[in-house]
Amino acid sequence: AVPVSIMVGTGRAASLGVLFRRGDALQALDGVRVVAFDKTGTLTQGRPALTDLDALAGQDEAAILADVAALEAQSEHPIAAAIVAAARARGLAPQGAEGVEAVPGRGLKGRVGGRAVLVGNARLLSEAGVDPAPLEDLARAQAGRGRTPVLVAIDGAPVAALAVADPLRPEARAVVGTLRSMGVEVAMITGDSRVTARTIAAELGIDLVEAEVLPEGKVAAVQALRDRGPVAFVGDGINDAPALAAADVGIAIGSGTEVAIESAEVVLSSGRIGAVADALSISRRVMRNIR
Ligand code: ADP
Ligand code: MG
Fold first, then answer.
1. 3-state SS string over 169-187?
2. 52: which DSSP letter?
3. CA gyration radius for the chain?
4. What angle in degrees, to the nearest 10, is found between the helix axes of 194-204 and 136-143?
5. How confident is the model at residue 8 (pLDDT cuts 50, 70, 90)?
6. Is 77 in the pocket of ligand 1 (CB under 6 A)?
7. pLDDT score recorded for residue 2
8. What is the best residue among 52, 100, 106, 162 to mutate for testing ligand 1's pocket, by most ligand atoms within 8 Å of CB?
9. With a cut of 0.85, is the ipTM above it?
10. Quick one: which of 154, 155, 158, 251 has the fewest CB in 10 Å?
11. Does the predicted model carry a pTM greater than 0.90?
12. Which residue CA neighbors atom 4 of ligand 1 most closely?
């Protein structure tokens, strides 16, 4: 009877766009107490747009945007695409940046036309010896609206706070509600600032938030949540792979990167995050039948 229920369950799951890559995943999912989502690209669409360009008094906004876009043209981060597109839309032709370096979890540094440019979060500026304080009020207001502040310093001086907003996936709020009604805790893990993360979490009805997590810190964030019981982690990106492997159940978005899919026990082939709730309810039904 056992293999039959599991076969029926995995077949039903497949028709809903849920692929169980390992036989024991159906059983493991039944025991999950916490579902942790990666924010960018999983709860959000992963396609941010530039929403703000707040420069300090006396600064030239267009010149700043051009310098920033010159650096971002060499980055693969979703924030980079938003900024480059905004610069193009304003008819700016960013001139070549030199020595551009990505600082993981923080942003970019490089030179444009002899100017030293920093683009990223407060930590990036602080660690480079630039006090981000003059930009703090602007950044806090942006973050309080769920946007990601992008601070800019030129030649060692803070000059502007840009912000990008990444729209939520339309089904994100509903899936959080469904999971909570099924008695599991829902968490969000992100490299974004605490204020931005808390604002978005509040919109979604999520109360467990791990923010300002560095790329190599996602595994530790998953491990910390395991104090509450078995954890399923839902993610899509290359840097989600270690966390997917570290979770009791790794759930990858089918439209995500190959590495993420390879590291997961469950794949949402439909690309819908609503399928997380479908997967959980199927696993519960199957395991109830078996017992
Ligand atoms: P996430 O995937 O949650 O955005 P990351 O580790 O990629 O996490 O980034 C963490 C933070 O570092 C971002 O929220 C942003 O503030 C900053 N950052 C990273 N890359 C860039 C970039 N190319 N331009 C500006 N800021 C960046
Ligand atoms: Mg992601």
1. CCCHHHHHHHHHHCCCEEE
2. E
3. 21
4. 20
5. confident
6. yes
7. 56
8. 106
9. yes
10. 155
11. yes
12. 191
